[in-house]
Amino acid sequence: MMMFQKRSDRWVSVVMLLIVLASVPAFAEKEHRSVVCAKFSCCAGLIIDSRGCLYSANPQTGNIYCIPPGIEPVLLGRVEGKPTVLAVDRLRILFVATESGVVYQVERTGEIKKAFHVHGTPVGLAVDRDGGLIIAIQNGTILRVRRSGLLSMQ
């Protein structure tokens, strides 16, 4: 009975995933695909905020870009070091982690502040529901940093 339950749960998960993917326009109909940006190179990470703006970074230059819907990329600013991963919170504050372990906070105005530093190279970055950061480091460590623990919030 237990084996049947696990298989049943797995099938339910697969069916739910397919339903979700089918409801997303890009997966439902191929003719609705469009090029967002044609001449954008050296991309380190690609994320989207609640208003449909895309964010990315150039690891060679440290430049951080915002790509608003229907508009060419806009330079938000530049961080020191090579960006590796990005995350954005509910308030559309962007976080950019670099190869050296520094995590920067990039405001919508373009103001950039150091938010946190880890020992190692961040390979994953997410924002939790309370605005804190979850940072995956190359050595396999995953850190959770409360929003109040960010340097930029003190």
Describe this structure in words.
- This protein has 154 residues and is an alpha+beta fold.
- The protein folds into two domains: 2-31; 36-153, YVTN repeat-like/Quinoprotein amine dehydrogenase (Methylamine Dehydrogenase, Chain H, 7 Propeller).
- 17% of the residues lie in helices and 36% in strands.
- It has two helices and eleven strands.
- It has helices at 2-23, 25-28, and strands at 44-48, 54-57, 63-67, 74-78, 83-88, 94-98, 102-106, 112-117, 122-127, 133-137, 142-145.
- The protein has a four-stranded antiparallel sheet with strand order 1-2-3-4, with no helix packed on it. The chain has a four-stranded antiparallel sheet with strand order 5-6-7-8, with no helix packed on it.
Question: Which helices and strands appear, and what pairs or packs with what?
Answer:
Elements (H helix, E strand, L loop, with lengths): L1 H22 L1 H4 L15 E5 L5 E4 L5 E5 L6 E5 L4 E6 L5 E5 L3 E5 L5 E6 L4 E6 L5 E5 L4 E4 L9
Antiparallel strand pairs: 1-2, 2-3, 3-4, 5-6, 6-7, 7-8, 9-10, 10-11
Would you give the CATH topology of the largest domain? Methylamine Dehydrogenase, Chain H
Which structural class best describes the helix and strand composition?
Answer: alpha+beta
Annotation, overall tally of beta strands = 11
Q: Termini, distance in Å?
A: 54 Å
In this structure, how is the largest beta sheet organized?
A: 4 strands, antiparallel
Order of helices and strands: HHEEEEEEEEEEE
Strand residue percentage: 35-45%
What CATH architecture of the largest domain would you give? 7 Propeller
Low-confidence stretches: 1-8
How much helix, percentage-wise, in residues?
10-25%
Radius of gyration, CA atoms, in whole angstroms: 18 Å
